[in-house]
Amino acid sequence: MSSSRRRPSRRAIAVLLACGALAGCGFRPLYATGGDTTEFDEQLASIQVLPISERIGQLLANSLRDNLNPTGAKVAKKYTLSVTLNTATADYVIRKDGTASRELLVVYGSFIMTQASTSANVLYGSVRINDSYDVGESPYSVVVENSDAQSRAAREISTDIRTRIETYFRRQAKS
With left for phi above 0 and alpha for psi between -120 and 50, is residue 167 left, alpha or beta? Predict the structure, then answer.
């Protein structure tokens, strides 16, 4: 028998069967990045994000609103999302002369999603993000780097909270 006419191995057949089974079960990866990020979901759009204090809170609130309702559709609010943030910065890397060359930004957040009609808490959790940035010679560069780190942290927290909310709604739909 020639090598070009080999029969498929059992392993290859098993992989093909597993792929077919996953395709039929409704499997959808939570962290997929190749899809349309502006997909409208009425449940997510029905969440009202309450204002969050401080600049990083404003960045987070805007990011959450954009992530939960990317099209800006007018939808009746069924849920309220409340987020509380705490931030801290610390020297992360120290130069030989005792000055910092890198700083660490730690953002800790807790969130509660309540149902508007009953005021019952339906989902709560916490998230922690660590981000670091270079400390340059110019004070202005430190302000800019800190601002960029806050923006990155807000986007990451927003993505994490949205993923948890999506998971909650999927579990509710199955039960």
Answer: alpha
How far from each other are the two terminal CA atoms of the chain, in whole angstroms? 54
Question: Which residues 6+ apart lie within 8 Å of 152 measured at CB?
Answer: 131
Cα separation, 97 vs 103, in Å, equals 16
DSSP string covering 89-139, please? EEEEEE-TTS-EEEEEEEEEEEEEEEETTT--EEEEEEEEEEEEEE--SSH
CA dist 1 → 5, 8, 9, 10, 13 (Å): 7, 14, 15, 19, 21
Contact present, 109 and 158 (Cβ < 8 Å): no
pLDDT tens across the length of the chain (175 residues): 455 556 667 777 777 667 666 655 555 555 554 444 446 688 999 999 999 999 999 999 999 999 999 988 899 999 999 999 999 998 888 888 888 889 999 999 999 999 999 999 999 999 999 999 888 888 898 899 999 999 999 999 999 999 999 999 999 888 7
Question: Distance (Å, rounded) from C-alpha 101 to C-alpha 94?
Answer: 6
Handedness of CA 148, 149, 150, 155 (dihedral sign): positive
